[in-house]
Amino acid sequence: MTCFTDHRDLSRATATGYLFLLLLFSSFINIWSSCSNGSCQVVDSCSLSTDCGPGLFCGNCPALGKTQPFCIRGQATIPTSVIGGLPFNKYSWLVTHNSFSIVDAPALPGVQRFTFYNQEDTVTNQLKNGVRGLMLDMYDFNGDIWLCHSFRGQCFNFTAFKPAINTLREVEAFLSKNPSEIVTIIIEDYVHTPKGLTKLFKNAGLDKYWFPVSKMPKKGEDWPTVTEMVKANHRLLVFTSVASKEEEEGIAYQWKYLLENEAGDPGVKRGSCPNRKESQPFNSKTASLFLMNYFPTYPIEDEACKEHSAPLADMIRTCYKATGSMMPNFLAVNFYLRSDGGGVFYDLDSMNGQRLCGCNTIAACQAGAPFGSCKNISMPTPSPMTNSVGSFSGPVQFSTSTSTVYHPNHFIIALFLFPWIISLFF
């Protein structure tokens, strides 16, 4: 009996050893056969950002139950690089809401910042990734004009980010290095200094790119072509929320030229696309540009990947119908890099494909071909998630590592749910 027991134990040990080797070999085969070194495509499993192809990063989307890392798109297709020469209003462009309000941006010395955050990488990197519109809140502060995410029209040291000229110099550097690109700046304007914005843009070296108000269409007609704008070096469009500054400083009044849906929670409510109160009605014939706001009132980083998936595509269709078949020229979002795969970039490709060539994506467009002549393009489908690496291993062009995702907005949102706490600051 003792010999039998020893033999049985030995057999079990041997079987366990074989099983271990089999699992090890199977794991080796899986690793060997999986993509890596830049060969992984959208929604393929990944371990590092270097596993993913150009324009992709390795992330996840826990809000949709996708905790395993996979390749996510992080860069836009510039539509003019596929089909150029059309009027500016024939294209769709990506806009970042509160472009300056960046997670981990340094606060003033000795001050704990207390405000919301809307983006995760620098304005320079946003532009490199294909963002072509910036929403900037400008205030008088510290004897200068600052970018600030604040309350009641006043900037405080705990809501301030940086002098506006710093960000505008990033824009100037980008335009200087990319002579065929066009950038739009939309200012939420709390600047009361006489000619303050005029001096600011001149000091930043951006006046040489300024698109003059006198050349902006005022009766709903087409804008100049992108070719004409580049040739004239009119590659910077600037809009202000203050009507009087169009006459005083030659800065275009936003709602004279842009139709707009409601921002905040009304703009993300499923099945509804209400007209913004300040904007002209959607059926107006005097504005030929449409800005679609798509971001909740209280921004949360880890919810953005969910917002930028199927709900965004649904809202684009809803607003298209609400505006009488007007495709958004500008799509404004928070945390633009986050999605369950293609996100805002695929939606932009879809919008530009439909408006430029009648195809479901701009990748199917063929320059010079008749409208509706589309290449056969297969869209990627999700593949099994097998890796167990942590979340966000280094998104495209991020200025800092986000392997540990920081969520400052949760605390601030909780405070805003209790107005009496906020009133203590004022």
What's the arrangement of secondary structure elements?
Layout (H helix, E strand, L loop, with lengths): L1 H32 L22 E6 L4 E8 L19 E4 L26 H6 L2 E11 L2 E5 L11 E4 H14 L5 E8 L5 H8 L22 H6 L4 E5 L4 H5 L2 E2 H4 E3 L28 E5 L7 H7 L2 H13 L7 E4 L9 H14 L51 H9 L2 H4 L4
Parallel strand pairs: 3-4, 3-12, 4-7, 7-8, 8-9, 10-11, 11-12
Antiparallel strand pairs: 1-2, 4-5, 5-6
Word description of this protein:
- The structure is a single chain.
- The chain has two domains: 41 residues, no CATH class; 317 residues, Phosphatidylinositol (PI) phosphodiesterase (TIM Barrel), CATH 3.20.20.190.
- Helices cover 29% and strands 15% of the residues.
- The protein starts with a helix and ends with a helix.
- The relative contact order is 0.16.
- It is an alpha/beta fold.
- The strands form two sheets. Strands 3, 4, 5, 6, 7, 8, 9, 10, 11 and 12 form a ten-stranded mixed beta sheet that branches. A two-stranded antiparallel ribbon has the order 1-2.
Give a summary of the structure in a few sentences:
GO terms for molecular function: phosphoric diester hydrolase activity. This protein is of the alpha/beta class and 426 residues long.
Q: What descriptors fit this protein?
A:
disordered C terminus; 426 residues; alpha/beta; two-stranded antiparallel sheet; TIM Barrel; disordered N terminus
